[in-house]
Amino acid sequence: xxxxxxxxxxxxxxxxxxxxxxxxxxxxxxxxxxxxxxxxxxxxxxxxxxxxxxxxxxxxxxxxxxxxxxxxxxxxxxxxxxxxxxxxxxxxxxxxxxxxxxxxxxxxxxxxxxxxxxxxxxxxxxxxxxxxxxxxxxxxxxxxxxxxxxxxxxxxxxxxxxxxxxxxxxxxxxxxxxxxxxxxxxxxxxxxxxxxxxxxxxxxxxxxxxxxxxxxxxxxxxxxxxxxxxxxxxxxxxxxxxxxxxxxxxxxxxxxxxxxxxxxxxxxxxxxxxxxxxxxxxxxxxxxxxxxxxxxxxxxxxxxxxxxxxxxxxxxxxxxxxxxxxxxxxxxxxxxxxxxxxxxxxxxxxxxxxxxxxxxxxxxxxxxxxxxxxxxxxxxxxxxxxxxxxxxxxxxxxxxxxxxxxxxxxxxxxxxxxxxxxxxxxxxxxxxxxxxxxxxxxxxxxxxxxxxxxxxxxxxxxxxxxxxxxxxxxxxxxxxxxxxxxxxxxxxxxxxxxxxxxxxxxxxxxxxxxxxxxxxxxxxxxxxxxxxxxxxxxxxxxxxxxxxxxxxxxxxxxxxxxxxxxxxxxxxxxxxxxxxxxxxxxxxxxxxxxxxxxxxxxxxxxxxxxxxxxxxxxxxxxxxxxxxxxxxxxxxxxxxxxxxxxxxxxxxxxxxxxxxxxxxxxxxxxxxxxxxxxxxxxxxxxxxxxxxxxxxxxxxxxxxxxxxxxxxxxxxxxxxxxxxxxxxxxxxxxxxxxxxxxxxxxxxxxxxxxxxxxxxxxxxxxxxxxxxxxxxxxxxxxxxxxxxxxxxxxxxxxxx
Length: 800
What we know:
Layout: H1 14-25, H2 40-51, E1 58-62, H3 69-77, H4 80-85, E2 88-95, H5 100-112, H6 116-123, H7 127-140, E3 143-150, H8 153-159, E4 172-177, H9 180-186, E5 191-193, H10 200-211, H11 215-218, H12 220-234, H13 241-252, H14 257-265, H15 267-273, H16 289-298, H17 302-310, E6 320-321, H18 322-332, H19 343-356, E7 361-365, E8 371-375, H20 378-390, E9 395-398, E10 415-420, E11 440-445, E12 450-451, H21 454-463, E13 469-471, E14 475-476, E15 494-496, E16 517-519, E17 543-545, E18 568-574, E19 590-595, H22 600-603, E20 615-620, H23 629-633, E21 640-644, E22 662-670, H24 673-679, E23 687-694, E24 698-701, E25 711-718, E26 721-724, E27 734-738, E28 757-761, H25 765-769, H26 778-781, E29 786-791, E30 794-799
Parallel strand pairs: 1-4, 1-5, 2-3, 3-4, 9-10, 10-11, 11-13, 12-14, 13-15, 15-16, 16-17, 17-18, 18-19, 19-20, 20-21, 21-22, 22-23, 23-25, 24-26, 25-27, 27-28, 28-29
Antiparallel strand pairs: 6-8, 7-8, 29-30
Helix pairs in contact: 2-3, 5-7, 8-9, 10-13, 12-14, 16-20, 18-19
């Protein structure tokens, strides 16, 4: 694998470089920034936990570089209550190069304020003797020790010998870090505080204090012009205090509007560098945002650097599905060091670690609390794309930018990301240039779908013969067929044609024996799959997503007997006991089946248990075909369950699914009162979707029912009344009700104080008439923070 210059240092002399780094980053606690904004609430929270009797031993501030962790720690350090509570104080800056003896000696010296003679004595002590004296000092007195900018759990491990962590003491530790692992390693019972980015008003307040203080009174006209420019430039800072401070510091030295306009034209470069851009500018970039964020990048291991750089593929503000991302990383070979059985878990741990290091932000969590989507802060994305470009890691061709020049990537670049507009036919990749060196090709677009023809598709497969990764989704076209040439991509490991208008899959796809992931799901029409053996030679297959409607769905598709690491099979048709075949696939985690006959008698009484399965979807294709509960109950450890088909019974045995957090019921027919009572007793249920069916005419949710339910979606249901008893659904945060015949807001909804979001759409006129302020049901929803009402294509959003 190419190294991409990931180990290249920025200047010769590692020791000198790190020494200069540390000097730049030392925070002196006696220097308190007079221009602080938005820190008061966090300061009070942290101070309260530090002085609380029998409070946490360690109080931590965790966040990305430039978020203001050290500034916040200083505010806490100088808080009046904190100063009065503790007897002695020590502030030390750890940084990336932690010298344990020096740090422990510095802490001890600051806590006991020794004489010159005592200092000389301490200097002669061994590290264990220093640690013992420090330990005893914290036991005997109330000490506050601030460990600022600690990077690794290894650094904490080398220092913890000096702290009485397992004994009763009134001494406390306040630490700041970019790495969540440090927080968890230092004290699992400690208090963690995560500062948030500044909102627009706070951003402007900080910027105005630093760049425009007093200007309004001297020259109002110039003030207004600069304010307009400043407000626009602040959008590029995305609420990051460091970026705002860098920008304000630059502009504070520029008097004229023309100078401000110059900065405005190249705002991103100015924020990154922190100095003027001209040939006579001074400084080495230490004043800019990029240098501070780059410290986090430098601290990554080699494989995490690859994972981070790969994020440069995705467009700005793109919500990245973690499931797709981890599969891409595996296909790229970034996780090749992991055992084959553990690759998915290791890949997920990589994204978790990047989140823990504040390199990546969480978008959404799933029902099991795992990270479902992620994204990059704009300034972190700038760093990511800059590093990817420096190392020839990736080339982006942006067809969605109207006037942008589309340079040809050099032959060292192995990855292409292509940003599309609505039409793909005119893009002639491979027509005049040689793309034989490209290993990865990912397409992205701004809209939902993109026009494509078979000729362009065929040229794609002819010219990119060494591809390992091809993501080619949302493509439409008349009679669009996957050409036979797809079989030439012998090295392909990842193929996604998700939601494309593909009419047929050629038999040559059987040649793709290196595939790890194949996604053929489509929202449209019927796809022809040549025969039941087409996937039987794919021994390395780990994830296969079939279209819901395909020619082989009523046949028994065969997979390679050596495909022991098959984790995902979605939309496979089964009849009778076909499910028995999957018992041999001991690593399978996600299974989606479409049933075509009863199969109940054939499986009844069998003892087959799918203990590894975490997600199950059962789709009964005929109206009179009931849900096969024996198949469902043979999967005791599932987290997610999707059932489409008539529910004639809801067995009490369902309560044995202790890990079930997400349940989706579709076209379920009639649910009776006793069915609802089973559902509300599910021990771990967090998300419930009930779509297209009938509830009891007078639905009642009992006291104590649905104890952990956080999200409830009701869509196209027949029922008239709904009563929520006090104490029911005590954890509900989000409720969606659409296309239901419910006549009034459920009685008792006012008792659910946790409800933060209520979405109501396409309901009966009498339902809406009771909702408005002064209406009969307004008192039931007035405590909800966000009420979204959609009716007759009009949307009202009420935020209180």
